[in-house]
Amino acid sequence: PPPLAPHSLSEVRGGTCGEFYARASRGNLDLLPWGSAQRRGLLRGALGCLGVRSSRLHPEQLRSLGALVCDMEPQTIPASGPSILENLKLCPTLTRPQRDALNALLLAGGTSYGAPSCWDLQTLQDLGPLVMALNQTTLSLVAKAEREALARSIVATYSSRGLAQREKSLTLLRTLVAPSASSDARVKRNADGCSPKPITASTLSDPIFFIYYTPREFELCLTEEVLKSDLELLLEFPLPGSYLGALKNRLEQVYPSGIPEEQLRLLGSFSCLFSVEEISRWPVQSNETLSALLAGGCGAPQAQEMIRRFLELGGAFAGPLLRRMGGEKLCGLPEEELQRLPAALMGVVGQLNISSCSPAKKTLLYRTARAHLGTSGYCWLRPFLGGAPAEDLKALAEGEEPVNMDMETFLSLNPEELQKLSVLDVKNLLGTNLPALKAAENEPLVVLWLEKQSQRDLDCILGIGLRGGTSTPPHPTVSASSTPNGPKPSTLPTGPTAPAVSPSTEPSPPLHTTASSTHQPSPAVVTHSAPSTLVPTSSTPTVSTSPSVPAGTTHPIPPTHSTTTTSTSSAPSTPTVSTS
């Protein structure tokens, strides 16, 4: 059920209060602070709605109250009888008076669980979370074998629990075995201060052996023999945090000059308990040792110190080690260390994620990878393309093999280099993944690139509805040359029939001509008075001027002239002109 919304309880109507409080009892009551006015008001409203007039709750009332019972007074437990036990299982914690009332109810023997002296492992498991509330008096009546069986079943789930959860249940575990532990010679200590007995290889055969020791006793009783020969087995036990701290202290006592490298390989996640300063003294010399330590999953400072120590002692990276390190740890290396990476390793490291690298480090890694892989293998280069220059990206786009770059890789490209790519370059890079660019149009990298592209190119080349930052350039009305290799004069030669043409404000591309026009030995001059009409000839290219006569024209056309066509064979260099 959803958590209880903090609405005013005064809005709850009598006709619907039962349904409201039933739903509230199944919600997350922990959202309301313990003892808060709203939480107390919720319980009062529920009791009033259900007609509760005393400490005794009937079964139907208990079903409606659910976890709200957890806030009731301790006397409610014995007054309501065994039916209240199912409600108490819903309580995250019980107060000390509530736990005492619960144990009194169980000791009376009138519940479905029977007398504690008859409980077996199944009964203890059926009690569920109520086991955490059992006191020493109740547990002492349960057979030792059944208590220890329950302790083993709890320890078996430790591997999936965090250290905080282990510590929380440690009190229960020690309580389960306390009656049998008290019969040991705990008061008798050996010369090393250990009691009840030293921890040897045979001790490790019991999966709950550590419960019989306090953390301090655990440290004193760990023998040097076990630490040297059975450290790996010892670390397989789901030890709570306080015991792991005791083990760390004992290792430092046994190895005052530092933990040997062969033992470092066995530490796993236990290595995360050591400080950066302590790690700086470790003999991390082989790829195998560093790989094993990194597998422990320590935080960045400790992992980087392990790598630094490895390099300090002359270690050289191998492919499996780089794969174990991953991109994040690789990015944490200094630039001078990245420069030392052999180029041949780039082909065996797999798909590293170097997104956390700085631009400078991405560039270093790309250059190293390119030195070994070249520019033709996109699949191999893909993890390092965040450091690729624009010319290499263009080479990929223009290659014979389709790239089909995924959007994650595209968004990892260097923003400065991406700005140098044309719309066609991007289309060729993305290939079949081009539609994903539309979905990523609001990404900062894409926004910057789009701002520099013309709308015409985006529409004509991509055609996926992207908006560019520049408008379509206007079509020119004056061509600087009639042939691809011809001159680009700003004015035409003056003469009786050739008026001057004003300079264009920007270079204009040449108009395309028909094949037959390039074979004519001389152009013709065409004049007319029709407004803004391009009049080509079948044998010559034409140039159109603006309807208005620009300033500086030496031979303006009188407005009374009619349209005429004059072919001048004596002026072979005069281009064709259409004037109005």
Beta-strand share of residues = under 5%
Indicate the multimeric state: single chain
Distance between the termini: 83 Å
Low-confidence stretches: 1-6, 180-187, 473-580
Strand order of the largest sheet: 1-2
Please state the overall shape, judged from the principal axes of the Cα atoms. Answer: flat
Largest sheet: 2 strands, antiparallel
Please estimate the helix content: 40-55%
Structural class: mainly alpha
Q: How many H/I helical runs? A: 29
Q: Would you count the extended β strands for me?
A: 2
Taking all residues together, what is the mean pLDDT?
78
Query: What Rg is obtained from the alpha carbons, in whole angstroms?
Result: 43 Å
Features:
two-stranded antiparallel sheet, 29 helices, mainly alpha, 580 residues
Q: How would you describe this protein?
A:
It contains 29 helices and two strands. A two-stranded antiparallel ribbon has the order 1-2. 26% of the residues are buried. Helix 9 (144-155) runs antiparallel to helix 10, helix 17 runs antiparallel to helix 18 (300-312) and helix 17 packs across helix 19 (319-331). The protein has helices spanning 17-25, 37-50, 59-65, 76-80, 85-88, 96-107, 121-127, 136-140, 144-155, 163-181, 215-221, 224-229, 231-235, 241-254, 261-264, 276-279, 287-294, 300-312, 319-331, 335-339, 359-373, 378-381, 390-397, 407-411, 415-418, 423-430, 435-439, 444-451, 455-462; strands spanning 525-527, 564-566. Among the domains are: 257-314; 316-387, no CATH class; 402-470, no CATH class. The protein has 580 residues and is mostly helical.
